[in-house]
Amino acid sequence: MTELISSGLELMLAGMGIVFLFLTMLVIVINAMSKLITRYLPEEPLPHATAPVIVSAEASKSYIAAITAAIHQYRRTHG
Fold it and tell me: CB under 8 Å, gap of 24 or more: what pairs does 54-57 form?
């Protein structure tokens, strides 16, 4: 019986070791690929990027009212 348990523990440790090594190699490869991609293919800024839009207090009140009305209508129709 103890021989069976020791064989099971050996198999468990071998399996866990293989999984650990595979995941470690996966992390290393993904990090290396990320560094290569950012080095040779840098992200270019979007040509149509604009400054952030500032919403006035009056507009945000109308957005809140519209969202509240939509939620009320949804809850009324869907119980």
Answer: none
**Dist CA 14 CA 8 (whole Å):** 10
Q: pLDDT tens-digit profile of 33-46? A: 999 999 998 887 77
Entry pTM: 0.51
Task: Give residues with Cβ within 8 angstroms of 55, minimum separation 6.
Answer: 63
How far are the Cα atoms of 1, 18, 41, 68, 73 from residue 77, in angstroms, in the given order? 65, 55, 50, 14, 6
Counted residue by residue, the chain has a size of 79
